[in-house]
Amino acid sequence: MASSDDSRFMQLAISLGRRGLGHVWPNPAVGCVLVRDGTIVGRGWTAPGGRPHAETQALAQAGAAAQGATAYVSLEPCAHHGHTPPCAQALTDAGVARVVTAITDPDPRVAGRGHAMLRAAGIAVTEGVEADAALAANAGFLSRVERRRPWLTLKLALTLDGRIANASGESRWITGPQARRAVHAMRATHDAVLVGAGTAMADDPDLRVRDLGVATQPLRLVADSQLRLNATSRLGRTASDSPVWILHSDAAPLAARNAWGATQAHLVPVGAGPDGRIDAAAMLAALGDLGLTRVLCEGGGLLAASLLRAGLVDDLAVFSAGKFIGAEGRAGIGPLALAMLGDAPAFDLVEARPLGADVLHLWRRA
In terms of pTM, does the model score above 0.85? Predict the structure, then answer.
């Protein structure tokens, strides 16, 4: 049975695991804490690139003190041989007396086998401690395994009347510096940042994390069915420094494909819908197949609408500025073609907080 200490140490393990978000895909972001006689003797979290695993790092830090200790792991230890031996075996070999986990790993190569391996070795196993927090922390990994697509967060920076730019397309800056810094922090915890072709052509964005000292940049993705974005854009000029993936349809001209290939960008073919635009569900399925677990979409309006229409937006991060642009401005969301109000995509408010002169609203799909 779990105790209050179990909850406390598991919360720490989950917090440690979150440090890997955006840096460990396609692996889960796992944390591990080793405790002996009430004292923490080892801590670890999944390293960038997914190796070494959290348990391995915690055991290395603990050394001989792992003998007889309790291991708190935010996800069931792996049971399969991959690039490294199973973590369940490493815990057994180290002489750990008890293992406490938050959730079972849904990966078919694990899926309870890690727990079974530990129990077969005579180790006491307690499951389900702080499960909700662990599910939230690894929603992206779980989505990739169970739904075969990454968890998608749609970020919008809007005026009070829902505009992202004025009639001429000017959008810098709708929100203030604190809100923009928060966006960079969000980018740092996602595997990739996604924009549509219209936004990429209008803003010529960089999409990297700035001023936070991150060691690993997210992938930069553009949904561009016809490859309209010029390869001489900022993304094209920096593709050799920081990875860029361009999602396109079969209709993309060969010359444009060759131009983007020369930049060292990765071209990802995706099926198109009847309107010739990239099919949103097919796009996310392709990204899931390529290992992505968490994607932050930063617009524009047509791409956002396609994701909402398809029911693919899991979280919404809406930065609201105390400004009005008017009906002639550009709407944050494109047409949704709703027949009835009851068909409108619905979200539940999770949190609202001020950021300087702006307000951040975090929503989750109802």
Answer: yes
